[in-house]
Write a structure and sequence with these properties.
- The chain has 418 residues and is mostly helical.
- It is built from 18 helices and no strands.
Amino acid sequence: MRPWIVWATGLLAYIVAVLDRTTLGVSGLAAADRFGAGPSLLSTFVVLQVVVYAGAQVPAGLLLDRYGSRALIASGAALMASGQLGLAFTESLPAAIAARAVVGLGDAVTFISVLRLVPHWFAPRQIPVVTQLTGICGQLGQVLSAIPFLALLSASGWSVAYASAAALGVLSIVLTLAIVRNTPDGSAATSETMSVRETLTSVKTVWLRPGTRLGFFTHMGTQFSITVFALMWGLPYLTEAQGLSAGVAGALLSLSVVSAIGCGVLIGILTGRYPHRRSRMVLAIITSNAVVWTVVLALPGPAPLWLLIVLIVVISVGGPGSMVGFDFARTFNPRATLGTAQGMVNMGGFIASLLLMQAMGMVMQAMGGISFESFRSAWMVQYVVWALAVVGILITRRKARRLLRDGNDRILLEGVNP
């Protein structure tokens, strides 16, 4: 029972992190009014947070390998709470942007730190499923932002809503320090202190493992579409371009979480049972995302509600699909550098997401602002990312399989085909 309690406490911290990450997505229109920001500037507002998140992944992984999950989860929660509190009471755009950057920094260390707990507390056969549960249950934070946070924002205003989010972060800090331990014996299970040169060499070694890069491109191709939708442009797209009410749009964003949970459990089971078919599952998820977006974007006007439901259900599978990337990292890296590898994998989807968010804002700004036509053109940028990810998966998968056939990788934890 103790492993589940420790994991659930870490999971709560991740749920709060997802809430903090997605609050601006559901309050984008309110933020535009509060700070006087247009589509391009508003996307930059969020993109900076994701830039910080993605850029901090490798340093966060190195710190995780050194200090363990407990310290980093608590530190991340403290950073996010302070950022949300600052955002609650400022009306200055530069101060608000700085606050979101702090939120991004705290968010950067949380997810991989919770994932790091899993191999220490659970049996190998449980790891794929618990890893999936971590990713998909963490998305309950999106439900918190889409329903109670949005309701609080509408009823009580900006400051009350964001201060309440900060209060949840404080609760997470207290529970993490009281309950979470890095390993069953409490040790941080870290490596010895390395010089700067040794650290850089270690980072290079981890990246050069084809399984790490396979995880990176897996995460990139599956995660970015639903992340951009949930984090920034989904609610404005559904309300302004598709003509839905805020309530219906919020319900559809919540449906995304339900879909991810159901599909995530299935993907976790299939990943553990058929590890040699993991990359095929990933390619199928990417293909389904591209196909459903093509159908929606090909319409001359707003899509019927049933098609929007299909769109959200299909792209939501990308969330749990991206978790397969972490499974590749675990397969091809020893525990001593697993945090670094997971940080690298986590960069893939968020780098793609931040580039797409910024590009979409620029496209809509160039077309005169938010409208049906500008959104349709902006979403087309996704096809470039999908093409890059698929090419990366195919190349790195071939290299990983060759490495396994040659039997040259002594650090493999599992002898399975990717």
